[in-house]
Each structure stands twice: as C-alpha cells, then as structure tokens.
Amino acid sequence: LSLGATGQQAVAGYRKDAIRAGLIPTLNSMMVVGLVTLPGIITGQLLSGIEPLNAASYQILIMFMLAFTNLIATLLITYGLTRQFFNQYEQLTI
To answer: What is the pTM of this model?
Structure first.
C-alpha cells in the first residue's frame, strides 16, 4: 500500500493462498472417491438397476458441483473480507 498498490493488489498473494487452502480438502476427496469408498449415490443407483456408467457419471457430476460450490464460497469470502478491510480510498481499516 505504501508503494501505491491498491488493496486488491496488496492482498492478491494472500487471497491465492487462502483459495488454494480452502480447496485442498475437496480436491483430496475427489482424488480418492473411486479408490477408497464407493459413494452412496452410485451404490443406490446400482442397486436400483441403473447402468454403472450412468451411475458413475451422476457421481462425477455431483462431485464437480460440490467442488464448484466450495470454490464459489471461498471466492465470496475472500473478496468480501478484502472489501471489509479496505475503505473506498484504498486505506486499510482494521
């Protein structure tokens, strides 16, 4: 800030780290979905007689929706906190 950066520029690195840290648990669960556990929606659909490929595609869709929801929430929180800590004149207000 003292060198002329805006509030958004000053916290860009911290925001990037926060977004990465917020997505790590979701990405880790997506990596092991098929290896460690067979998720409930696939099990239920297989027992009801749906083709395995369709059941797997539904599970992949749901995992991507959960990851996207997590991404949107993380982005909203980080941008909201940035707006909360800087006023309209790009001054830090704590």
So the answer is: 0.80
